[in-house]
């Protein structure tokens, strides 16, 4: 059987890391596409030359021609601009919306059967626009944010509790922005929910609140340190986790920006929710019960996403 084909649209910091990870994990052959001439070709060659040491079998090719993504099984989109210190994700909307138009058209023409994972910010609005521009079915177009946000939450929790990250689960809902909703009640250490750990005296409510805020600000913390761009290692591993679940039909339960119609009282919006990813794409959106407080936080986050979607429609009236 031929190897799967993975097309990476955008060969910048995240795109290059995605290519390296996909090759090391032997998920398939990799096409790196970018408008910048030389960048995808150079990165593809560099990563291919790590193959003998790493011992992977994968063909890597860099290109500036959309025709090379033909027949891709998975497309991961990072094309666009990242933020710099002082910028919010929302400041990227105008410029990245134009990028989503060209990317959506390229995917529709050359890889209409692909499972598409969008990473470009502002995430929830960009994945919505990408689905509109590409015309692909909504269950085949999804945004990566929740896996990263919950990985950040898990990392901070494992440090606080001094336990393995493997035994920490975390749950983050809502849009990928300042209003994201890390849910303590559904996050656990060794299966014990966080509020119980506070009651047991293993940590304080104040410390937990601090970790939740640090999770919300996780992207900005790294932008502030790097100064020239945003996080790329953890965003890439998060998207690879989603791609692998699709390619291997693992049916992982992962928080993603999925198109939600019906669940959570939504009537057609991309926002971060728990999903099942398998060979069918987004096979299920898991509608969980929220407390009044959690619902209020989720509604606030949904309103922020709706505001960004409305801004996209104002900029490009072809979007409906
Ligand atoms: P960067 O290293 O600048 O790479 C972006 C690449 O996109 C560059 O190589 C550009 O040449 C290329 N590009 C620009 N326009 C086009 C186009 N029209 N077609 C094809 N390629 C194009 O950025 P990065 O890799 O660090 O980040 C990429 C995106 O991911 C940004 O929008 C970030 O804000 C976003 N991001 C999202 C998360 C989430 O959790 C959702 C996390 C981190 C970064």
From TrEMBL:
Span of domain Lactate/malate dehydrogenase C-terminal: 148-306
Active site: 176
GO biological process: lactate metabolic process; tricarboxylic acid cycle
Positions with a binding annotation for substrate: 83, 89, 121, 152
Catalytic activity: (S)-malate + NAD(+) = oxaloacetate + NADH + H(+)
EC top class, as a word: oxidoreductase
EC numbers, comma separated: 1.1.1.37
Annotated InterPro entries: L-lactate/malate_DH (IPR001557), Lactate/malate_DH_C (IPR022383), Lactate/malate_DH_N (IPR001236), Lactate_DH/Glyco_Ohase_4_C (IPR015955), Malate_DH_type3 (IPR011275), NAD(P)-bd_dom_sf (IPR036291)
Residues holding NAD(+): 10-15, 34, 96, 119-121
Pfam families per UniProt: Ldh_1_C (PF02866), Ldh_1_N (PF00056)
Entry keyword set: NAD, Oxidoreductase, Tricarboxylic acid cycle
Domain Lactate/malate dehydrogenase N-terminal: 5-143
Gene Ontology molecular-function annotations: L-lactate dehydrogenase (NAD+) activity; L-malate dehydrogenase (NAD+) activity
Job description of the protein: Catalyzes the reversible oxidation of malate to oxaloacetate.
Family note: Belongs to the LDH/MDH superfamily. MDH type 3 family.
Designated name of the protein: Malate dehydrogenase
Organism: Ketogulonicigenium vulgare (strain WSH-001)
């Amino acid at each position: 059987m031929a190897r799967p084909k993975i097309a990476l649209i955008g060969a910048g910091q995240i795109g290059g890391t995605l290519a390296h990870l996909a090759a090391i994990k032997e998920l398939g052959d990799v096409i790196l596409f970018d408008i910048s001439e030389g960048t995808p070709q150079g990165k593809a060659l560099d990563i291919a030359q790590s193959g003998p040491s790493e011992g992977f079998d994968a063909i890597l090719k860099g290109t500036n021609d959309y025709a090379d993504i033909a027949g891709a099984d998975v497309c991961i989109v990072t094309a666009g601009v990242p933020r710099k210190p002082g910028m919010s994700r929302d400041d990227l909307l105008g410029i990245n919306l134009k990028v989503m138009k060209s990317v959506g058209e390229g995917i529709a023409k050359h890889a209409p059967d692909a499972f598409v994972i969008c990473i470009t910010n502002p995430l929830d609005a960009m994945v919505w626009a990408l689905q509109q521009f590409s015309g692909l079915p909504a269950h085949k177009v999804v945004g990566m944010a929740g896996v990263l946000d919950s990985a950040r939450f898990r990392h901070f929790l494992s440090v606080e509790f001094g336990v393995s990250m493997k035994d920490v689960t975390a749950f983050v809902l809502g849009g990928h922005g300042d209003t994201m909703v890390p849910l303590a009640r559904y996050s656990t250490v060794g299966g014990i929910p966080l509020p119980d750990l506070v009651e047991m005296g293993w940590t304080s409510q104040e410390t937990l609140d601090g970790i939740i805020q640090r999770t919300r600000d996780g992207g900005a913390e790294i932008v502030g340190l790097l100064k020239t761009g945003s996080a790329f290692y953890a965003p890439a591993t998060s998207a690879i986790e989603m791609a692998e679940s699709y390619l291997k039909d693992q049916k992982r339960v992962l928080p993603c920006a999925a198109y939600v119609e019906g669940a959570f009282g939504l009537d057609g919006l991309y926002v971060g929710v728990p999903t099942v990813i398998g060979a069918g794409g987004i096979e299920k959106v898991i509608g969980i019960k929220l407390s009044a407080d959690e619902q209020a936080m989720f509604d606030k986050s949904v309103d922020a996403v709706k505001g960004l979607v409305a801004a996209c429609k104002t900029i490009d009236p072809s979007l409906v």
